[in-house]
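Predict the holo structure. Ligand: zinc ion.
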Amino acid sequence: MTGVEPSRKHASIPGGANTSKPGLFGLLLLVAACQADSHPRPDQALVESVPELAESAKTERQKALLTGIDVYGTAEENAAGARVVLLFEGAPLFRQKQLPAEGILPPRVAIELEDTEWGETVPVSQSIGRGGLKRVRLATPNPRVVIDLEPGATGRVFYLTDPYRIVVDVSATDRRVIKRRPLVVLDPGHGGHEPGAANDEHGLVESGLALVLAELTAERLGEIMPRARVMLTRSTDVDLSLEERCALANAMEADVFISIHLNASPEPVRRGGVTTFVLDTTNNRQALRLAARENGTRVAEVTGIQSLLAKHHRKGQLEGSLNLAGKIQRHTLKGGRAVFPELADRGVRRAMFYVLVGARMPAVLLEASFLTYEPEARALSTRTYRRALAHGIASGIASYLHSR
Ligand SMILES: [Zn+2]
């Protein structure tokens, strides 16, 4: 990856807003949330870093408006979890409470809102009954959103900006029970307004290909390691912020997190290849450029924020990530070479990827092939090569999980 113009590769939302670019405020809050070590129990209040705004900020602020409540992840009957997203216009002031079951009331998470109104189209009550989520409802007299959980389920709350959102991740089963079954979170890069890199000649788009690779990897993992559970951060072509991807993996207490991408270069490349990245606050120029492209930011912004984030990087996590990266790199190459023998090994490297920041488990970013290297683009157009890469990724994951 050389000489990148990030804005060309990463389409922004019309109007200039870019949902995948974390505002510093939101990112730091998220890092704080990601770093919280205490695991909530259903009967225990959860203390999180939520925006307790200063008094001065309170007096100046406009009333926030709750514009919608989205529920994700409950399409399947035996969903391992669910996600509730409260959408706001304006920054909401809120307090969260984790309440145990009492009388006829189930265990629940209450989001108490201050100075906030809700739009007329927001449903007063949504019954779900899947993924540990029983119901989402609005309650008065204090404006609040109550998330009723199923017995044994737990909820974790975090806050995101740009746009303002309060996210509640619900885990269906008591973590102590399911902990024996490893959880793999696969993150297909980009999506929605951010297609990532592309090869127009071959009609290849990174966001679509990454999703296909993730789906094939999940399918393969189910065959070779049936006891592993697999979750995808997205299953359709939707926008998903970089913070949410890592936060989902943390909320679900995943064992590994793999963000899947395809590499590209605006200049002709003489060889393509596979690269696996682990998070590092590197100053390597090429790595910074690639990070800028994948983050949807400029190089200057990456360098500006990296030292700040460095201290949040968990000690000991690098070792696990390097171990995972080595196995993914080796097996992806092996898988890909079964169909495309010349596939080059670009090795395990380090770079500053936002999507990996705050991850509490071994986490890597895989650039599975080059979209702009003609022989690889041709191979990527075939189902056979895609499947071969996915088989490689899956066996890398399985190899890591077996080795722990
Ligand atoms: Zn990418």
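The chain has two domains: 24-173, 181-403. The longest strand covers residues 64-72.
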